[in-house]
Every structure is written in C-alpha cells, then in structure tokens.
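ok trying this again, last paste got cut off
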Amino acid sequence: MTQRQAVTMKKALAYRGVYGVGKGRILSELVELTGWHRDHARAALTHNVV
C-alpha cells in the first residue's frame, strides 16, 4: 500500500466520525498532503477512491 493510500484511509475513518468544521479541516489536511484538488479529495474520503 502506498503512503498516499494509507493516509487517505486513515483520514477517511476520521472524516466519517466528525461533522461541520472538522470535515473541512480533515479535507484541507488531505489536500495539503496529497496535492489533490478538493473535489477529488472529498470523493476519496467519502467513497474510498484512491
């Protein structure tokens, strides 16, 4: 498993457990770490698209 996939899986688990501002914070962290666009990162977090 690549580092990007591992980070995304970890963030996806956290993303499911929070609401509102917390989701935005997790999304911003994933965008910063992976270099993805916010739309792609959101899809990866909600659908585990890696």
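PB: full thing came through this time. The mean pLDDT is 91.
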